[in-house]
Amino acid sequence: MSLSPVSPRPTFDTLLVANRGEIACRVMRTARAMGLRTIAVYSDADANARHVREADEAVRLGPAAARESYLKVEAVVEAALRVGAGAIHPGYGFLSENGAFVEALDEAGITFVGPPASAIAAMGDKSAAKARMANAGVPLVPGYHGDDQDDALLRAEAGKIGYPVLLKASAGGGGKGMRVVESDAGFQAALDGCRRESRAAFGDDRMLIEKYLTQPRHVEVQVFCDTHGNGVYLFERDCSVQRRHQKVLEEAPAPGMTDALRREMGEAAVRAAKEIGYVGAGTVEFLLDADGSFFFMEMNTRLQVEHPVTEMITGQDLVEWQLRVAMGEPLPLAQHELTITGHSFEARLYAEDPEQDFLPATGTLTRFAMDLEGACLDPAKVRLDSGVETGDVVSMHYDPMLAKLIVHGGDRVQALATLNRALAALDVQGVVTNRAFLQRLATHPAFKACELDTRFIERHEDTLFAPAEVDLAAYAGAALIGLNQLSRECESDSPWDRHDGFRLNAPHTIRIALCPTGHNLANAQAPDADGVLVVEGTRETDDDPWHLTIRGETLTARLQHLEGDAVAVTLNGHRRRLQARLEDSGLVVMADPRGETRLFWRRIDAIDHGQHETEATLTAPMNGTVVALLVEPGQRVEKGIPLMVMEAMKMEHTMAAPADGHVASFHFNAGDTVNQGDVLLEFAPEE
After folding, report:
1. How many angstroms separate the CA atoms of 552 and 348, rounded?
2. What is the pLDDT at residue 2?
3. List of residues 6+ apart from 28 with CB closer than 8 A
4. pLDDT of 374-428, one tens digit each?
5. Over 50: is that where the pLDDT of 500 sits?
6. What is the DSSP letter of 607?
7. How confident is the model at residue 10 (pLDDT cuts 50, 70, 90)?
8. What is the bridge-based pairing of β-strands 393-394 and 363-364?
9. Which pLDDT score is estimated for 525?
10. What whole-number distance in Å separates Cα of residue 414 and Cα of residue 131?
11. How far, in Å, are 62, 151, 592, 606 from residue 238 at the CA level?
């Protein structure tokens, strides 16, 4: 039985946004356009963040940790009362789907821009939600959604359903507490990991199990309901391209969608919303199989990250719709008044390293800009929703998403061409990002051909992560920078260390090894070993050009520093302009149109004449917190066995044994905070 709509809500003139980053900036942009006074909240880590700078007022919540600031219900409510905010917009994440938060606002007389607590509760418990959806006639994926959470029972249910299965946190979302389990042998480890993530993210470790469809598409429907009993769907989005169950590229409308299927899915989504007495913006997510059958996954009782693609094809401001519904107004349009125009894509820009299994990255953004004019892009067709600017710090405490790039075109082909040009025009420096990976995705033949499913990245791993063709200018530029730096480091009073030609008629020669992120420089003795490129540089004096020997070819090379990070590399008279900057993690070379190349180097002159031993240590790949130590010191392990678990930016990362051997000692305990590059443990490989 459906719940009756709630009564109309009062109007308000002051809005507090209980979030951070790009969504806080985006909500405040619409609120200001509607004449509302905007209030930001912030943690100590965000004291100088963009959303704080753009708000009319800002209130401190607490320390950097989200649980002590953005997730602290009483602190957010107190902040709203202090500044006289009549309403709170939760954005997404944090408290956006927290029923207790909504109830606290109701008690304080503050309007929540979202659904009632009862609707959040109905969909927040995924097991109960499945039962409600079955009653509403919404198709479901086969699975186990019961209350009995005994490990043995869950394992038995997985066997009944048939592998592969998907373990999901019952109270979860956003890919947290979720694992694909391929066989019975891996079930317990996956269950333990899901429960740890779920407890950390939601304070609830109950799990549900679903049959894992091997090649489904992830298609979701945007729904909207008001307090007058009206409900509509604003069409669908395809969000199939994901990594770790988190979306990377989204588009609207979904490719290949027929009018009949769109109507069937849309009406099912509205039925789902009305079944729980929903109010405001919500998203009903479905798995769409190749035969056109679709199954309910979950309902997100909030605004989605990817809502801008729906705005692009409908011409509607969904945040404005949210605020008007919260003020008690009816929906601005009826179903028959909503239309689709053109096609839209959204690409999520993350501070992460795709070449290192998408590890989150931290640092200071030395540049964050997009040159629309230089790329001949129409500003009406390109939108950059960001929560950062040049000079901002990306910390370890929150989700690594920096911005969303949204584009529109007359059709999918035009929109995709605009997306690729816009990605090329996006200049982000100082922090590792997935920008180049997004370019590879958007230009992939299978993506262009609409061959989509939720395992797209996994299926095309060989081509998406294939070693890029060596850009000679980029490698030569990196080599010249490295050679010049190493030459300066060699300077001393000894004539044997000079590099001005005093070599008993022998030129000054340095050999270095270059490799991109993710390759191993430890065994860089042979050219092209493990992706390593060896460069030999020779010159008579500082004023002479370098003679670079690369893959048996000798090139006359000069390096000229231009303005800012720009350099000019001249190889045998051919001059190329590059962007190059030194970072703690190596050298980043921008050589458009190929994109970003991140390189490391080491001098290898001495390696040729001595034995080199591989380091027997594991270092932290990012800033984070140690979650668990999985083995005892001295315990023998085989290569690949998990040794310890770290957590950063809401995700777990497992450190595995690099070889057969044993852990001599751990340098940190569970709960300790570590910085990128910290030595986590001493590992002793077997002889």
Report:
1. 41
2. 37
3. 15, 17, 38, 40, 51, 54, 55
4. 888 999 999 999 999 999 999 888 888 999 999 999 999 999 999 999 998 898 8
5. no
6. G
7. low
8. antiparallel
9. 44
10. 42
11. 38, 35, 30, 54
**What letter does residue 140 receive in the DSSP assignment?**
B
Q: Which residues lie closer than 8 Å to 583 by C-beta, 6 or more apart?
A: 363, 430
Cα(69)–Cα(51) distance, integer angstroms: 15
Q: Which two tokens stand for residue 396?
A: 């370890």
Backbone angles phi, psi at 682, to 5 degrees: -100, 125
Q: Which long-range contacts (CB under 8 A, 24 or more apart) does 95-102 make?
A: 95/18, 95/70, 95/71, 96/19, 96/301, 96/302, 96/303, 97/123, 97/124, 97/173, 97/300, 97/301, 97/302, 98/73, 99/124, 100/73, 101/73, 101/76
Q: How many CB atoms lie within 10 A of CB 291?
A: 6
Domain 14-113 - what CATH class? alpha beta
The position carrying tokens 């097991």 is 127
pTM of the model: 0.74
Using one digit for the tens of pLDDT, what is the confidence trace for 662-676?
999 999 999 898 887
Query: Yes or no: is domain 472-609 CATH 3.30.700.30?
Result: yes
Please tell me the distance from the alpha carbon of residue 285 to that of residue 236, in angstroms, as a whole number. Answer: 9
Nearest Cα to Cα of residue 92 among 190, 164, 26, 159: 26
- CATH architecture classification, 142-211: 2-Layer Sandwich (3.30)
Query: Can you name the residues that pair with 509 across neighbouring β-strands?
Result: 538
Q: How confident is the model at residue 598 (pLDDT cuts 50, 70, 90)?
A: low
Q: Which carries the bigger pLDDT value, residue 139 or residue 653?
A: 139
| Fold (topology level) of 217-460 | D-amino Acid Aminotransferase; Chain A, domain 1 (3.30.470)
Which amino acid makes up residue 335?
Answer: Q
The fraction of the chain above a pLDDT of 90, given in percent, is: 56
Phi, psi torsion values for 584, nearest 5 degrees: -60, -35
Would you list the DSSP string of 329-362? PPPSS-GGG----SEEEEEEEESEEGGGTTEE--
Give kind and range of the element (H or E) at residue 271. helix 259-275
Strands 673-674 and 624-629: antiparallel
Distance CA 556, CA 344 (A): 47
Q: How many residues does the chain have?
A: 687
CB-neighbour burial class of residue 425 (10 A; exposed 0-12, middle 13-18, buried 19+): buried
3-state secondary structure of 205: coil
Which class is domain 617-685?
Answer: mainly beta
Choose among 385, 382, 416, 97: nearest CA to 241: 416
Q: Which residues are catalytic?
A: 302
The beta strand positions in 157-279, using DSSP E, are: 165-169, 178-181, 207-211, 217-225, 231-243, 246-252
Close Cβ partners of 157 (under 8 Å, ≥ 6 residues apart): 144, 146, 209
Task: Give the chain's largest Cα–Cα span.
Answer: 94
Q: Domains of the chain: which residue ranges?
A: 14-113, 142-211, 217-460, 472-609, 617-685
